[in-house]
Amino acid sequence: MTVVAFPDLIGDYTLRTVALGAAALGLVSGSLGSFAVLRKQSLLGDAISHAALPGIAIAFLLTHSKASLVLVLGAAIAGWVGTLLVMRIVGTTRVKEDSALGIVLSVFFGLGLVLLTHIQKLPDASQAGLDRFLFGQAATLLQRDVVMIAGLGSVALLVAALFWKQFKLLAFDPEFGASLGIPMRTMDVLLTSVLVLSIVIGLQTVGVVLMSAMVVAPASAARQWTDHTGKMVMLAGFFGALAGVSGAVISSLARHVPTGPTIVLCMTVLVVASILLAPNRGLVWDWVRQVRNRRRMHMEAVLGDLYALARQHGGSEHVHAAGALEALHPGAHHELLELESRGWARRTPHDEWAITPAGETQAELQGRTADEMEE
Amino acid sequence: MSEANGAPAIEVNDLTVAYREKPVLWDVDLEVPAGVLMAIVGPNGAGKSTLIKAMLGLLRPAAGQVLFFGRGYAEQRRLVAYVPQRGSVDWDFPTSVLDVVMMGRYGALGWLRRPGKRERQMALAALGQVGMEDFAGRQISQLSGGQQQRVFLARALVQDAQLYLMDEPFQGVDAKTERAIVSVLQELRRQGKTVVAVHHDLETVPEYFDRVLLLNVRRIASGPVDEVFTEENLRVTYGGRMPLLQRRSGGHLAPMAPDPASSEATAP
């Protein structure tokens, strides 16, 4: 009998590094991504991560270093320039925000690809492996990378915690915030900057192509479960970390499986489960509520008919054959049993039915509510 | 009455606002004395919301100057509260009624302080003023339009300002909300505070407000309702699109069809 060993997250150095790094980046991008989602700027994450690619290439060309901090710095600058460009385009031209995001995203990403191709043709042996930034390769994470992710990530989270009030206003009602004297433009730039930070620290693991999923998906899943801003941000961070760890560990166990797509698949499971199952907002509960409502309406209709029949035939002593009721309401049998269990209808030994006094009271109540609703 | 240094609550001089060369407000002068309820009236696109936003510095005017109690807005912010149109935010935002009302204290709290017990109590009191105390813990997406409007009003009330600028507070609200807002307006006037509100329902202008600004890009007229809310001025303001109104003797305006039931319902 073969037992598939559960990955040893504590003892195995590589696995531990990968899991820690992925957890940290998922936590940070999930939490800060909540603000992007609440501000309806889901596309911004996509633009930032794609815009970061030329920054990575240029940082390498300038320094010939593959140290993560250098490359991440390049990515951050390019991502930031890309975002400012989007804001500039929207502010000074008639191009709408979604178009501006699309333009910046594709132009920067295209430039990044050109530079990467150029770098790969260089006779310099050290260039190998930069393409891991496209789809991510968690197995290449070193301990110092994890320290960097945790360090920069902490800065981003700290800023969000300090300016919690202002960021909440920015997301909910920026004009009101401005009327209070809070410099909302500065807050916008600050929030965008920490969002850039939270994105670039994930690029080595997740890759520029799919990093935006780590910004948008955890927040979308978290929104399903809670109606509270703080809880949503924390839950999004948790979802991000969970997907990050599972995806990174799975991909580092298998050979040549890029990490980005694996993490995104794990995240997809969380999102789909949340959309279906979350109470209140989940589709399954919607469906259950609909079925229940329909049942109740059928039952009330049958009770209403029993009431009307009793009125026409001289009171609640009058009984009706089940077949007659079935003719009025196909499938009434089920509803009659339900009415009986509530004590609103009674059955004679000959399978005939009559309304009970309690049922009459209920029917009158129903009638009144219906009248009120019509008013 | 605070800040009663004799200066008017609002003084607007030569205010011009343009979107891409098209003037939305043209050379508007306005003086609002402290302690009055003033309606801003005019057709769609007349620049009513723009005027309020420009006064608050939310839009950069092409020219002009706005003073609150004699000084610029940056200095007098604490004295001014803003009630935006309720359609301007996403009511599916994950937050509670109490949280939204406490946002009114964010300015006074400063940069880093979080709202605490005192802010909670102020918010609950403000919700009580608009008849929404039972909704404090409610998620905002569960509110009706009128309730949303009352929450926004409560958020401005916790600011404890001297001047309230309201953008269409009566827009599409139910009768209960309308009564609640009117009673808040009267309470504010009783306390000597000033209210300027964009208003659409011409019939209720004389009933709810004591001054009016008739606006259509330019200022058509402004002053006490008795003097300037005339058919002639309204015709100029609305051009050919004047809502149905009936002339009363003396050139003043009265509601078209006096409906005893509805006027009772809205009576103070």
Quick structural gist:
The complex is a heterodimer of chains A (375) and B (268). In chain A, 75% of the residues lie in helices and 2% in strands.
Features:
heterodimer; A: 375 residues; mainly alpha; ABC transporter involved in vitamin B12 uptake, BtuC; Arc Repressor Mutant, subunit A; 2 domains; 17 helices; 75% helix; elongated; B: 268 residues; alpha/beta; 6-stranded mixed sheet; 11 helices; 32% helix; 23% strand; globular; disordered C terminus
Biggest interface between chains? A-B, 27 and 30 residues
Number of domains of chain A: 2
Poorly predicted tracts of residues of chain B: 246-252, 254-268
First-last Cα distance of chain B:
23 Å
Largest sheet descriptor of chain B: 6 strands, mixed
- H/E series of chain B: EEEHEHEHHHHEHEHEEHHEEH
Q: Please tell me the overall pLDDT of chain B.
A: 88
Number of strands of chain B: 11
CATH superfamily of the largest domain in chain A: ABC transporter involved in vitamin B12 uptake, BtuC
Strand order of the largest sheet of chain A: 1-3-2
Strand content of chain A: under 5%
CATH topology of the largest domain in chain A: ABC transporter involved in vitamin B12 uptake, BtuC
